[in-house]
Model the fold of this input.
Amino acid sequence: MGIIVLLIGISITIALVFLGIFLWNMRSGQYEDTYTPSVRMLFDDKTKSKKNEPARADQKV
Amino acid sequence: MELEVPLKTETACFHCGNTCEETLWLDDKTFCCFGCKTVYEILHANDLCEYYALDQNAGIQVKDVSEDAYAYLDKPEIRRKLVAFDVDDFVRVKFYVPAIHCVSCIWLLENLQKLNPGVLKSEVNFARKTVEIDFTPSRVKLSEVARLLASLGYEPKINLANEVSATTSATIDRSLLIKLAVAGFCFGNVMLFSFPEYLGLDHNDYALQRIFSFLNIALSIPVLIYSGYDYFLACYRSLRERQINIDVPIAVGLIALFARSTWDIVTATGPGYLDSFTGLVFFLLIGRWFQGKTYESLAFDRDFKSYFPLAVQRLSDDEWTPVIIYELAKGDHIRVRNLEIVPADSVLIEGEALIDYSFVTGESKPVSAVQGDVVYAGGRLIGKPVELVVQKKTSQSHLTSLWNNDAFQKSSESKYRKTIDRAARRFTWAVLGIAVLTAMYWFLADPSRMWLVLTSVLMVACPCALALSAPFTYGSMLRVFGKHHFYLKNADIIERLATVDAVVFDKTGTVTHGDQPDIHFVGRPLSENEKAVVKQLTGFSTHPLSTLINKSIRKADTPPGISGFRELPGKGLEGRSQGHHYKLGSALFVGASSDREAGSVVYLSIDDVVVGYYSISTALREGLKPMLARLGKRFVALLSGDNDSDRSRMEKLFGGGVPMFFNQSPHDKLEYIRNLQSSGKRVLMVGDGLNDSGAIKQSDVGIAVTDDTGVFTPACDAILHGSRVGSLDKFIAMAKIASRILKTGFVISFTYNAIALSFAVSGFLTPLVAAILMPLSSISVVGFTSLAVSFMAKRKNL
Done:
C-alpha cells in the first residue's frame, strides 16, 4: 500500500520532469526547424574543407 | 526551351547548372553569366568552395543588384520594422529568402561572417526559408547585409506587413502547443488514475482511491487555469458584449464539469469526471491546433502592398535618396529602374521607356512612352532607368482608387462561424431551458439529487463536437484543394463557393496562357539555316517580340554569320547572311499587305520576297471545353481587357450564345459583376492581373489564376494554378459537398448531445458514460468529416 503511493509519487515526478523538458525544448524553439540542425552538424570545419575542396569540386565538373 | 534535352555540345553552368548560352571560362569551370562567375569568384576568394561540394550546381542565377537597391532599409522607420533586436553594437534581423533550397544554401548562408566581418552569426531555418543574421551595425549597414545576400543569389524578400504577422503567428502557435502539451500530459495521467475506478476497487483500497481522486484534482487545475484559459477569455468577452457564441456553452460546460467533480471528490460522494474534463480540453485544443496548422500552410496575405516597391528614389538637394512611396508628393522627381514598378502616376521627363502594364490592363505587350507622356502607377519599367515627375499622390492614382473601392472592404467575417454561433446560441438557450425543467422535476421528485442532475445537464451541453466539425471539414477541404493547387484565403470561401450560380471569366491569363505564347510561322516552311539566321537576328534585339520569337527557335549547332545588322525602332530588323538579305518586322517595313492586327504579327522577307509571318498569340489552357460543358448554364460571360481579335477563337470555345465583352476597363468589369449581383446572382469571377482586382473583390468569390503562385497575385479570395482551371467545376462541386458533410457532422454532434442529455436528465450520467461519450463524439465527428472529404474527393477524381 505504502509502496504504491511512493511509486506513484516517483512516476509523477519523472513524468513532470519530461513535461518540463518538453516545455523547455518548445520555448527554446527546437521544434521550429527540424531539418537544418541535422544538416548543420555534418558540415566540415574550415581547415578540413580547404584540403578536400579541389578534389571533390573537380569530380562534379 | 527548358523542355528540350540539352545538346551534348552545350555546357552546364558550374554555379547554377543552367545551360550556358555563351560560356564564360574561369579555372576550367564554365559559367552561364557574369553573375554566376562573380559569385564563384567571391566564394573562391573566401575559401568557401565547399558550397559546390555539398550539392551539385547549387547556385542560383544572380540578377544584377544595383548599388543602392536596398538603401531604403537604412531609413530608421523601415529599419525599425524589420529589425528584431537593436542596440548600439548588435543588431538581429530575419530575412525571408525564398531561394533557400538545399544543403549548400544552408552552408553558405551560415558562413556569411567569412564574407563580411561585420556579420557575427547567421542561422538558417530551412522549413520557413528564413535566415537570421546578427551583425555589428558600426561595421556593416542593414542595406549592405541585404545586398550581400542578393549578390550571392539569395535575394531577401522584404515585406513589412508580413514581417510583423509572421512573428506573432509563430508565438501564438507555440503557446497553443504548450497548452496542448500540458492538457495532454494531465489527460494521460488522469486517465491512469481513473482506471482503478472503472475496474472496480474493493473497500480495502478506499484510501488509495481517495489519493488518486485528489491527484486528479491537482492535475486538472493546470488544465482549467492554463489550457482552457482561451475559452474562458472568449466566454468573458462575448458575455461582456452581451452575445452568446460557441465558447460560452463550452466554458460553462467546462466549469460545471470541473466544479461538480471537485465537489464530488471533496465530499467523497463520487469519483468525479475529471478524466472527461481533461480529455475534453485536450481534444478541443487538438482541433484548434489542427485548424491553425491547416490555415498556416495555406496562408497567403498578398495584397497590393506586398507587391508595390516599398521605396523609390527621389531627387532632393541634387542627391538621390530612397523614400517610402506613401511619402511621395506631387512634383517629386523620382527615378525608376529596370523591372521596378512605377509607384504613382507620373510624367516621363527624359528619354523614352517601355512600360509593361500587364498588371493593370492584362495586356502583356509593353507600351512605349516618350518624353512628356504620362506613365501610370502599376506599370513596370523594362529597360534602362528613367526619371519621372509625380503627378498624383499614390493614394489618389487611378490604380489605388480601384483598390480603394468599396469592393475591397468586403467584410471578411466568416459565415460558417456565424452559423455555428447562431446554432450555439439556440443550443445554449435550449440547454438552459431543459436544465431548468429538469431541476424543477427533480426538485419535486428527489430534491437531494437536483443539483447533481442540473450540473450533468449543463456539462453535456458542451458542444465540443459541434466546435470541431467545422474546422475539420473545412480544414481537410482546404488541404484537398491545396493539393490540387487551389489555395483559398480562408475556410469561409468554401461556403461562398458552394452557393455560386454565375461564373464570369477573364480572357488574358485565365482562358489563355499569360506567359506561354503560341508562336507559329505562317507561310512557306523555313529551312533550318533560315531559322538559325532568324534566331540570331532576333537575338541582337531587345524588343519583346524579338525575344519571344528568339525563344521559340531551337539553337543551331553552327550559328551563321550576320553582317549589316540594323534595328529600326517601331519598324523591324534587317541584316545580311550568306548573301541573302533578311528583313523582319511590321507589314509596312517588310512590304507585305497587312490584313491582320499589326501587333501580334511579325513578317519575314528574304531578299525582299515576303515568305510569311510569325503569328504570336497566347495559347488556350487545357481542359477548358469539358469544364465549360459541365458548368453549363452557370457560365455567364467572358470579360476581356484586350481587343476582339480573339473573338472567333473564343466563340468556338464558349459557344455562340455566350455574351462576350472586349475592351473592358477595370471599372466596366466591376460594374458588370455588380449588375449581376443586383439581379440576385452569386458571382464567381475568375481572372488574373490587377485590372480584375475590383471585379474579383466585388464578386462573391474571386479567383486569381496564376502560373506561378510565387509571382504576383492580386488581392483575391483564392489562387488557382493555371494548369487546374479545367477542374474549376469540380472545386465548386466539392465546396457543395463540403457544406453537406458539415451539416451531417452537425447532425451527428447533436445526436450525441441528445443522447448524453437524455442520460443526464434521467440522472444516469455516470463518469464512465461521460468519459466514453464526450471524446467519442469528438472523434467520430472529426473522423467522419475528414474521411468523408477525402472519400468524396477521390470519387470526384480530384
Chain B has 28 helices and 28 strands. The longest helix of chain B spans residues 160-199. The interface with chain A takes residues 14, 28-29, 47, 49-50, 52-53, 56-57, 103, 106-107, 110, 114, 123-128, 170, 174, 177-178, 181-182, 185, 189, 207-208, 211, 215 of chain B (CB under 8 Å).
